[in-house]
Known about the structure:
Number of strands of chain B: 11
Helix content of chain B: 10-25%
Oligomer: heterodimer
Helix content of chain A: 25-40%
Number of helices of chain A: 2
Strand order of the largest sheet of chain A: 2-1-3
Distance between the termini of chain B: 8 Å
Radius of gyration of chain A: 16 Å
Amino acid sequence: xxxxxxxxxxxxxxxxxxxxxxxxxxxxxxGFDGVAHVRxxxxxxxxxxxxxxxxxxxxxxALAERLLSNPVIERAVARLEG
Amino acid sequence: MRVGVVIFPGSNCEYDAASAMTDxxxxxxxxxxxxxxxxxxxxxxxxxxxxxxxxxxxGALARFSPVMGALADFAQAGGAVLGICNGFQVLTEAGLxxxxxxxNSGLTFLSMPVTVVVSSTRSVLTRAAQVGxxxxxxxxxxxxxYTCDDATYDALVANDQIVLRYRDxxxxxxxxxxxxxxxxxxxxxxxxxxxxxxxxxxxxADGRVLLEGFVAALAAAH
Lengths: 82, 222
């Protein structure tokens, strides 16, 4: 069966995120006050063929750790879409 | 001395690197990224560019090129490996050097000469230089900000693995780091381009002392 997967890759705490900081600085000028701690990241969507949901997540997590993210600076979380 | 210059799809500094080696009396040969044996070489350079388009992250796909397995064996056996700019990014992604290179703090692509200061002469790149020596060498990168966790940083300092530092940090690198080596000193990654600083006619010849040391290290190991 095919399981639709979402992987979120975000920078680890403590890793500078100049894009997030720039977005945060721009928000007050657009009238969005009170927004803090903006962090950017990437989202990947794909289908995994597996016997059950748990093994699909396991495969997704493994490939996210190996390829989609650099564990030195990023954290990857795999979940079922929806 | 035979130096292999690895070409990934998207490398673009391979001719400069090869020319610098020839200029210094070494012979250079191009090595396609699908090569699986580097044992006939005395040294290997991963040149600058955009290996595999830098898709995903700089170096993220290049680390899975077949040549990287051979490169790990070559480095493990003590062979001299130099990663310049994108080559440095590839070495960190492959785990041959610690830490990572992230986007410049100013979010701009930087292309300009910078002054770097030699921090260690233990590496194959700096053995002919002096600690404290200032060199003007161009940088040309978007993701050159060196980052690592505290434990890795402490190990870099304790093992004398910080090779070059920027005098005026252009990109937000931790502790002004421009180049690091592995613990043994035979694998070095640097963001500046010494192969583009080979002649005063083209702005600077300060890269020569680094690459001369690299070639001399190959001769010493031969």
